[in-house]
Design brief:
Elements (H helix, E strand, L loop, with lengths): L6 E5 L4 H12 L3 E6 L2 H10 L4 E4 L5 H14 L5 E4 L17 H26 L4 E6 L12 H20 L5 E6 L20 H12 L7 E2 L5 H4 L7 H11 L5
Parallel strand pairs: 1-2, 1-4, 2-3, 4-5, 5-6, 6-7
Helix pairs in contact: 1-6, 3-4, 4-5
């Protein structure tokens, strides 16, 4: 993926990792559009980054996604990079769930169905570009789950699998399919912002941008902090990492 000369859409771009990526790519001279539910967060980000654009999007709503994609195609016809970054994470006590499973269903709609639907809606536009990229943001927890956030981890594991299939099906096109798997990063997703165990957001974004400079870009973008989770099974350490992670993070429960 080229680092400059792009028109980039980043969902969940008003805060956290999404905002960090948006600002990093904006600083390189790319045309960046951020999308999300919260207008205030979008407005604060664009105000701090003159020239950055924003659009509201309810990623849980299929009809809203289709309408959003139509507007994007009209207003940003050169769009060639999509970051499926928007996500929510909630602790769940599986022995004491709501009858309607509202939290679990919202997580699935946002973290899994949202990227699948938005990718499908924007794929015709991306195919028109001479070079394009789809980057799905998963998690180290796609590979070793945090048991207190079961649906979140399941959606990220599913998105990892979907990304591999998408990459294979698009291999004959000009669209790169990449996966960004963050470690525990200091954001407001759950309790990470104030947790000293979390990787500082600025350091994470800097490390990610260094990997993006590698050409060709690796299919999986993994900073050093996430490799223990990503390769736990490969290295024969899955049980030890699983037990250590969940013992260490019991306080999120």
């Amino acid at each position: 993926m080229n680092l400059t000369g792009n028109t980039i859409l980043i969902t969940g771009g008003g805060s956290g990792i999404g905002r960090g990526l948006a600002e990093a790519f904006h600083a390189l001279g790319n045309r960046v559009i951020i999308a999300g539910r919260r207008k205030q967060a979008l407005d604060e980000t664009t105000a701090a980054n003159p020239g950055m654009a924003s659009m509201q999007l309810d990623i849980e709503d299929p009809s809203a996604i289709r309408a959003f994609a139509a507007v994007v195609a009209e207003e940003f016809p050169t769009l060639n990079v999509l970051f499926n970054n928007a996500g929510i994470m909630r602790a769940e006590k599986l022995l004491a769930q709501q009858e309607d499973l509202a939290d679990a269903e919202a997580i699935v709609a946002t973290n899994l169905l949202g990227p699948i639907r938005l990718t499908a809606a924007l794929l015709p536009l991306l195919q028109k570009q001479p070079a394009a990229a789809i980057i799905n943001v998963t998690s180290g927890l796609a590979f070793v789950p945090l048991v207190y956030t079961p649906t979140y981890c399941a959606t990220k594991a599913a998105l990892h699998s979907y990304t591999e299939s998408l990459r294979y099906q698009l291999k004959s096109t000009a669209i790169e399919v990449l996966e960004l798997a963050p470690p525990y990063v200091a954001t407001h997703l759950m309790s990470g912002a104030e947790d000293p165990r979390a990787m500082p957001l600025g350091l994470f974004i800097s490390a990610v941008m260094e990997i993006f400079k590698t050409q060709p870009t690796p299919p999986e973008i993994c900073v050093e902090n996430v490799k223990g989770l990503r390769f736990a099974a490969v290295n024969g350490r899955y049980d030890a990492v699983f037990n250590g992670l969940n013992a260490a993070m019991a306080d999120v429960h």
